[in-house]
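ok posting inputs for the oxa(dethia)-CoA job
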Amino acid sequence: MRGVKIVGTGMCMPKYILTNEELSSFIDTSDEWIAQRTGIRQRRIVTDENTIDLSVKAAKEATEGIDPLEIDLIIVGTVSPHQVIPSVACSVQAQLGATNAMAFDISAACSGFIYGSKIAVEAIRCGSAKKALVIGAEVLSKVVDWSDRGTCILFGDGAGAVLYEQTDVNKILAFDVGSNGMLGQTLSLENQAQNNPLIKNEYSPSFIKMDGRAVYRFAVNVVPISIKKALEKAQVNIDEIKLFVLHQANERIISSVAKNLNVDLNLFFKNLDKYGNTSGASIPIALHEAKSNLKNGDKIVLTGFGGGLTWGSIVVQW
Ligand code: UT7
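and the output
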């Protein structure tokens, strides 16, 4: 079977920094509450950028030095696309000039990057692509209810990108992915109401709704199981892992996972204090920031979890 490796990463964050202090000026919360319960201190939110702008910049960085004509596949994991048609991926394709690529978006919320990576890696393994670009990109600030302090304090905007390439020596060692639609309503973002000549509805925008405690319980339960399953498939011992890059939702979730796995918390990368929860974008952003500390051959784990409910882990050799 063909091998796959990561050959490039990139990220792009909006310029505007929204601090916990500024949030506290228009909603009943405090820096102390947010920092203690989540670890978040600030997040980036768009002022004049959109999901496509952020994706294109992250993609350009991840594909620097690569002829865009060599990119066969572009997948964007997003639940906050700038528009539904054309997809963010097709808009990225146009701006990169990647005219040979098949391009589409997928909806798997905070697992979007992991799910997109699985599709991309399997496309390379079966020979239908040689270079595949996977982007996680969100502008959650437009789908957050800014009057709901249980959710609006958590989320941020941003994009991250990873370029996968076919190689002789395989570096993508294993995946574990799963979904549980039965728990779907614990974290939801409704689409437009039905509206046709027979059903007339007033348009009302919909926002993210979350049962935070239920999602928390789901995350601390499913993430260790997923990591163990992926490591077993990869035949890698947990002691060999140099870095765990988890979806950046809550510092307490990361600590709980580290404790459950009996792994030193220092091996878990964190940047949620700066960016908050950027859903599908958080893992490629974190990987891009973490990679300066990685050496060739280091084994790492990437794990996403969230809306759907969905989850997934990848064991990667750097
Ligand atoms: O990326 C998708 C995956 N999502 C997640 O992983 C989110 C998982 N869930 C969580 O991270 C946590 O559940 C939250 C951070 C969302 C909430 O933390 P919590 O410890 O579960 O708090 P809670 O919702 O149980 O609320 C505790 C108290 C409540 O007050 P009472 O009823 O005890 O008087 C809330 O009204 O804190 C109150 N509260 C706040 N207070 C100040 C809730 N939000 C805030 C706030 N500021 N922003």
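notes: The two ends are 19 Å apart (CA to CA). The chain has a mean pLDDT of 97.
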